[in-house]
Each structure stands twice: as structure tokens, then as C-alpha cells.
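Rotation project, supervised by the postdoc (A.L.). Task for the rotation student: set up a whole-complex structure prediction and record inputs and outputs verbatim in this book. Inputs entered:
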Amino acid sequence: MSAMPSRDAGYLANSWLVAKREFGERVRGRLFFVSTALLAVLAVAVALTPVLVKMIDRGTTTTIAVSSADDELTLTSIRILDQFLNPSDLKGQPPPFTFVPAGTGDDVAQGVLDLRYAGALLAERQANGQVQFQLLIGESLPAERVTQINIGILAIAIFDFVAQNPLGEGFQVPTFDSAQVGASGGGAAAAVAPSEYAGRRIVGVVFVVLIFITLVIYGMWVAAGVVAEKTSRVMELLISAASPAELVTGKVIGIGLAGFVQYVAILLPALATLLLQDRIAIALLGSSSGLDVSLGALSPGLLVAYGSFWVLGFVLYALIYAAAGSLVSRAEDLQVLALPLSLIAIIGYIQAVMALTGGIGPLVRFASYVPFWSPFVMLTRLTVGRVEPWELALSFGLLIATIPIVAVIAIRVYSAGVLLYGQRPGARQIVGAIIRPPA
Amino acid sequence: MIFRNCDRDHRLTDPAGTPGYAPACMSLAIHGLVKRFGPVTALAGLELEVPEAHVFGFLGSNGAGKTTTMRISLGVLRADSGEIRWRGADHRTLPRQTWGYLPEERGLYPKMTVLDQLVFFAGLQGVPADVAAREARSWLARFRVPEFADRRAEELSKGNQQKVQFLAAVMHDPEVLLMDEPFTGLDPVNIVLLREAILDLRDRGKTIVLSTHQMETVEAMCESVAIVDHGRTVVAGTLRDVKRSTGRRMVLLSARGDHRLEWLAGIPGARLLRPGIERAEIELEPDVEPDAVLAAALAAGARVTHFEVADPSLEQVFIEHVGHPADIDPDAEASAGTPTSGRGRRAAGRPAASDTEAVA
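Outputs recorded:
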């Protein structure tokens, strides 16, 4: 027990010590392995969704109404679509499509709304002889079948050109439009996506689901870690040995690294599944049916953006969760806080899902700049939409600028919260601690 | 202030010696410390002066402000006003390693091994891991539990966890050790071990502030004490000065064949505090001379076999100043509808055997 000269432990050194302890404690725990395995299975399942949907979809028939003022055009279109999209040898299976002639456009739109038709193809001959098509897409019409109908429409146009052969006019690709017809009858029009839209959407879904789940889970790890230190009363020893800033920083880094390790363990099989999706589809379905388009969505730039949003998003949410964890003394109380805490992320998640399914509206565009939501929404926009460089810079800039502000607030709340036992501070106390830190 | 004189080793000498204040000896000085938590005033101008290399008893009932004072010293809380200085330097400018802290509410990481925890906590205070591991094993051996090094904290009894917590507080060799109820929950053997360790630290020049409700421990270990109540210092000084601060004296008397001491009724200001066949304890008001008791006993024909003048026990002094025993929370009692007994409860506690002026 000789006297030991202590060197002055600095902010970084102490933060790193705390981080190492947090990392080791989590990664060595059995729970870590179990949750990693479960999340990996979930991620692979999400990545396999298109193949699974296709497998389920294989035995179903999609009914499409075909409507035109020109009855001949209607019948010709049905014949060509049937010939191109329904295999001649069905091997006892029902045909993928049934095309039925329909009356006016209003009727078929109602038919799509009433789910009598999965979709409707409206054909109209222009004054110059060119045929214009509009596809009304019902709720039950899968994206992959929309792609197939597009091919059929192209075939109709070619055959129609050959049949009509208008003088002085070369073949023109038919103008094509589509409209999403929802159960609400909204019928909000959206431009048809390019060929890899479906693949991008799959990547978007996988990314958004993963980033949401992991941010909330790892955020809760941080909060639960703080609560555990309060419950075991080791906090009293800790707080006298290291500053709140060191403890919060170390906890966020340590748990963040543990989360990253788990994340890689989850993401790698999910990415491998996406990359091998066409082969899996061939093995299971006999053809890839265009599923290989998802490869194109996984650009290095998108992966870098994803990693950056994940890191920054985690830091932001972990700080909030650390502060929240300091305000309660028992794990049961943390459950009460879990929902309101998750709500912040859920709002961003919902916006991201809107972007994936309903297009990029002004609200989604705005949400993609808001720091608490941009890790979800901007990421989605990057995946399925078009983002200007300045928008991406603004989104990242606001997120990065917000982190130190939230850090200062979180550390002040943490400083006040960790010393409170058996009482939950009110809003006034929390605001008081933020304005005038306890130490 | 009662501290008056220090020797070369900063030990208090005769308090009745050279009058005057000796600031050089007051290495830990707390002046005018105020801290409010909303409407509650935890510290209302607390004053403390702790000589260096002393074991200092910091006494007060629950809610008196002891823990808040310690937390402010450590920089965990900020005072509303007042100052804390160690060797003349503002405590906010001191490195954290200056302090060692054993909190009253303490715990360990349940899943970590004892050695890992000690190395971790020492690491936070800047001690390299290899040095910390060596020191940890050395301390564990001293506490006769070297086998604990590789055990998880959750596998240890509460008392043994407490020893580990003490080690976590001292591993980095702090100059000042703040200990909040360090003996609570320990068995007698471990209390002795801990006492020895604390006194050893004192001998190595460490300043130890000991907050406890165990008055006998304070009397056995502390050279100086302070009693605080409602955030103020009620009395402070050397143990002997504090014990004499009420002006009351005690007489321990044995009279063969007479344990009723009915003749005591003839002495105003003398009260039989605790009758006994072997020895009776008599409390004297400040204006009553002990000689009067002896004279009255002899005049009544009592066969006095033992007559001893003693200071009151620290617990009696505490009750005299604060109005209730240290382990009673007056606010909790009041809220529970139990009237506090105040000075009427001063019968608790025995006079100290030390600091006596005995007449055989």
C-alpha cells in the first residue's frame, strides 16, 4: 500500500476507460449473442421479403381491367397482354393475369377501388395515331406485376404501330402514366419509378427498419446502463471518480461500439441476402423475375451515407436516452419512459415509410432536414428519391450541429438526475438543471 | 472556534494552551457554505475546519447536510455560496484525485470481478492498470481476502462488498478521504480491520473526514469533531473540547450498599442519570461542582469506593446540542406523528471512559 503518484486522468482517457468497460460488459453478455442472432434472422427475413412475396404470389391470378373508347384496341390489347404475360404452358397452375374488357374510365377506377380489379389499363388513341396508356394501380397489385404489365404495354404499342403504320411517323414509345388507387379513393398520382425502383425500395425498407430498431434498442441499452448504475448504487462511486461528461461520453462510445459490432453481425447476412436474392429466387422460383435490380441500389455512396446517418443518429439518440435514464431509479420506471422516448424515433420512422410508399411530399422533405428524423427520412430519400447535394449537406450539417447542443443538455440533466433516488424530477427541475447545472 | 494550537505534525496539542487561531493547521477549510434544493435549505452557512492528517468526526442526524457537504467538496454539486479550500486552494481547482470518497449509498458492478472493478476505479483516477492491479492485490491481502480478486461482486456478502468499496475509494492514494457511514453493515471483525486501515492512512498523512452515527467509533478514532444540524455547524473542535462544550460533567460513583443515592436529591442540579449496583452515573449541571456530590455522599454516610469525574459521552453532547439522537430523523418522526423528545431524551448514551478526571 505504498503511496501511488496519480497522473491527472484526462477527459479522453476517462471516457475511453468507461467506454471499454461498457463495451466489454455488453459484448461478453449472453444477451448480446441472443439479440444479435435474433436481429440477424429478422434482417435476413426482411431482405428475403420480395422472394417470399413472390413465392406466395406465384399461385394467384391478377385481374386487370382493360378499357378504351376503341373496342378494337381493347380487344387487341387484351390479346397481346394475354399472349405475352401468361405462359402458354401453365402446368396446372392458374394464369398470373386475367385481362377483362371494361367500360368507361370512371367505372374501372371504381372497380379498382372496390377491389374487383387489381388494376386497370386505360388506352387512348391520340389524334396522331399514337396510343397513350394509363395504368391504375390498386392496393393488391404488386410492383413486380406492374413491371410485367409495362412490358406488355410496350408489346401492344409495337404491334399497334405495325398494324397502323402511320405515314411519316416512326415508331414512338407509347406515353405511359400510372396512378396509385388507394382504398381511401385518393388516387394520388406518382410517376412510375425507373426499373430499379423496386430494388431501391427493398433496400430502403431494410435500411430504415434496421436503423430504427437498432437506434431504439441501443438507445435503451444506454438508458438501462445508467439506470443499472443507479440501482446498484455504483453511481455514487462513479460520479466521484469521473465527471458526468466523461461518463456519458464513455457510455455512448462503449455501447455504440458494442452496437456497431452487433450491427455488422446483423447487416452482413442481410446484405449478402440482398446480393444473392436473384440466385435465391432462381433456386426457389425457377426465375429471378427481375429481383437482381436491388443490386443497383446498394451503391458505395449510399452505404457511406447509411453508416454516417447511423453513427450520428445513434450519438444523438444515445445522449437523449442517457439523460432520460438518469431521471429514473428503477428499471420498471424506465419502461414507462420507453414509449415517449421511442415516439421521437417513431415519428421519423413513419415519415420514412411515407417516403417509401407515398412519394416525397413537402412534409417528408422537411422531415429529412430535421436532425431527430433525418437519419431515417433523408436516408430513405437517398434510397428511393432524388436528393440535391445542398439538401444532403443541410441535413448532415443540422444533425452534426445539434449533437453538441443535445450533449450539453443531456450531460446537465444527467448530472442532476444521477444523484436523485426515489423521486422523479419534474419538468421544472429538469429545466432548472439545464439552465443552471448542479456542478 | 475551538482549535487553538497545533504541533509540528499538525496534531492538536493542549487546547488550553497558547490562545489564537492557527490557520496553517486547518488544511480543509469550509466557510459559509450554502446550498438550497428548491425550497429546502440543505446547508445554511456551514463552517468547518479540519486539521491535516486528522481523523475528523463529522456528526449530524439524517438531513443535517453531511452528504451534501461531501458532494460539494467533490465537485459533484455546486454550492450556492461559500467556499471550500484544501491547503489554501479552492477545491474547484484541485485535481479529482485529491479526494477519495466512500459514499453512504454505495454499490459495485455486480457482474465485474473485484480486481477489474478496483483497476477500473483506480484507472479513472489516473492510476496505470498494472500498478492498480498490484495495489488491489496488496489491499485485498491486507483485508485477508486475497481470493476475492477474481470473484464477481455479486458473489460477495454485503460486508465484503463494503470492503471492496472502501478499497475503490483509497486505491488512488487520495490526500483527503471522505467517508460516509463507513462502518454500517460491517461485523465486529471487519470494523476493527477498517478502523486499523483508516488509522494507518491517517498515520501516512491522509486527512480523513468520517461521517457516522456511531458515536463510540468517533470517540475511539477521531481527534476532532463537528456537530452539524440543519445545515449549520453547532459545535466543532477537538474531541475533548466538544465533549466539554455543554458545560455539563458526569460523576461515576460507587457506594457500597447504596445504589438508590437518595441523598442526591439534596443537591440542586445533580441528577441520577443511570442507577447501577456497581456504578451510578450522575449528571451535573454546569454550575454544580463534582466535589459537592462527594461531600454529600460522605455526609449521608455512604461508603464511597469509586468516585470519578468524566466528560459526558459524545452522544449526550450530541443530544444536548441537537435535541435528539444522531440516528433519529426528526423530520421523519414529526411526519409520522411521533413527538420528538428533545432534551428530555438525553439519558441515552454513556459517559466516555476517556478524558476523565478520576479520583479513586
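Student's summary: Residues 415 and 439 of chain A are 7 Å apart (CA to CA).
Supervisor addendum: The beta strands of chain A are 62-68, 97-102, 119-125, 131-137, 175-180.
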